[in-house]
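Ops channel
N.P.: pipeline sanity check, posting one input/output pair.
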């Protein structure tokens, strides 16, 4: 965190399949101070994406720690699997990568888990015990909130459906719209299929949607 006019600021970085998003927040008022999006025009390589993070930090003159949301399986700040960015990311330690640049990474989470943790703050007064959070973008990420606690690593979007004969995200991610040229109405029918499968299998009491397409 860094101080600006007496207020603490925090920086969140959301690495996606097609772009990286940045959000600077006043930690006292929780208000958004600045946002930015950097498309992955230079590819999905580690240096190509991480250089955009370094560049944005310099442009905003941010001095402090950052939190990163990543579209894959993460364990102890290290990438275990990155299905939408490629195997080159597997084994990357974000803390070690950014240390030579004097950038402190305090948290690295699966992007859907990070979104779910934010949702927990909004759902404290809800009566539902089991809440499913879906992030819709290049893939379909998932987070499960049970009695106010996050269950990490659900990865429901990567589950194979014998009914659809593909994974759920292969059937109805935002990437499918671009690759198959699907009209939005047809995509909505497909996404309804995904919701039906998840509801029948896991019986959530509420579903929250977020991500690029929302």
């Amino acid at each position: 965190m860094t101080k600006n006019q007496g207020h603490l600021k925090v920086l969140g970085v959301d690495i996606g399949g097609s772009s990286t998003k940045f959000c600077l927040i006043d930690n006292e008022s929780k208000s958004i101070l600045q946002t930015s999006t950097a498309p992955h025009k230079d590819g999905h390589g580690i240096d190509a994406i991480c250089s955009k993070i370094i560049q944005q930090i310099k442009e905003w003159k941010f001095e402090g720690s950052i939190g990163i949301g990543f579209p894959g399986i993460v364990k102890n700040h290290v990438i275990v699997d990155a299905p939408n960015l490629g195997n080159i990311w597997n084994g990357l330690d974000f803390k070690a990568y950014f240390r030579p640049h004097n950038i402190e990474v305090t948290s690295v989470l699966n992007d859907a888990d990070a979104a779910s943790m934010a949702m927990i703050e909004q759902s404290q007064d809800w009566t539902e015990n089991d809440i499913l959070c879906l992030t819709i973008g290049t893939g379909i990420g998932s987070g499960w909130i049970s009695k106010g606690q996050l269950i990490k690593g659900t990865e429901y979007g990567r589950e194979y459906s014998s009914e659809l004969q593909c994974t759920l995200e292969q059937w109805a991610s935002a990437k499918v719209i671009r690759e198959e040229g699907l009209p939005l109405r047809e995509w909505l029918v497909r996404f309804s299929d995904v919701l039906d499968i998840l509801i029948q299998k896991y019986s959530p009491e509420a579903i929250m949607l977020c991500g690029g397409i929302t």
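N.P.: looks fine end to end. DSSP finds six helices and 14 strands in the chain.
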